[in-house]
Amino acid sequence: MSKLPEKHRFIDLSDYGRKPAAWIAHQVKDTYITPVHITLSFLFVGIGASLAIFYDMPLLAGILIILKSILDAADGELSRVKQKPSFVGRYLDSICDIILNASFLFIIGYKTHYDILYIMIALLMMQLQGTLYNYYYVILRNRVRGDLTSRVLETEAPKAMPYESQRLVTFLYRIYNLLYIFFDKVIYHLDPSASQDPLSPTWFMTGVSIFGLGFQLLVMALLLNLGMAFLIIPYFIVTSLGIPLFIFIRKTFS
């Protein structure tokens, strides 16, 4: 977990792809390949996973979903190895994530005969879960001077890095804001004091990491391969009951 100083690291259940991601980053660090190339590669891998789900190939779908998670970590790893943090990469990564999450759930919902309303609720809940985890994680990183390309609240386009285009950063920020501002504001209003309160204990961060995208996709891959794809839509709806529970725990133990 290279986004944090060593003494603040915790067991992140959603970050199982970090070691292979670091290996990939070190293999390509001296090549023309950039973090954006890797981000685009996980987008195409995710599209492949969506097609595998649609054509009833759960093993291939599961493998591609896990590969997508690894590549999703590899772009950030490469950015840190090259010592070139990027707002372009940060926003593009999140935009690709939500596109793929919607693709996975809509295809799974269609194949398992769920009404569009339940699919939409599941997607909203999946995103809220991920936003809660990211909210606490970004607060931790900002407070301990870890990776700083993510901000607690994205209220305006950031100043581009010297090697980035400000126009592109602003453009991607606007798309990001359109897709994520609802989720960010909901979570912020549910727990507005989190950034001022004492840091959350490591055991709490490990617990809330089940809402991280990596863990969410791992569950999805497992259910697909266990012949339980019909449980994926209700999984994201029911587990969202954990959102107020985690907020209560944080306020109690921080």
Give a description of the structure.
- The chain has 254 residues and is mostly helical.
- The chain has a single domain, classed as Up-down Bundle (Four Helix Bundle (Hemerythrin (Met), subunit A)), CATH 1.20.120.
- Helices cover 68% and strands 0% of the residues.
- It has helices at residues 18-28, 35-54, 58-81, 87-111, 116-143, 166-190, 202-208, 213-225, 232-238, 242-253.
- Helix 2 (35-54) packs antiparallel against helix 3 (58-81) and helix 5 crosses helix 9 (232-238).
- It is globular, with a radius of gyration of 18 Å.
- The protein starts with 17 loop residues before the first helix and ends with a helix.
- 41% of the residues are buried.
Shape: globular
Oligomer: single chain
Q: What's the β-strand tally?
A: 0
Based on CA atoms alone, the radius of gyration comes out at: 18 Å
CATH class: Mainly Alpha
Largest sheet entry? none
What is the CATH fold-level name?
Four Helix Bundle (Hemerythrin (Met), subunit A)
Please estimate the helix content.
55-70%
Tally of individual helices: 10
Could you say how many structural domains there are in total? 1
Mean pLDDT rating: 93
- What fraction strand? under 5%
The topology string of helices and strands comes to HHHHHHHHHH
- In CATH, the homologous superfamily goes by the name CDP-alcohol phosphotransferase transmembrane (TM) domain
How would you classify the helix and strand content by structural class? mainly alpha
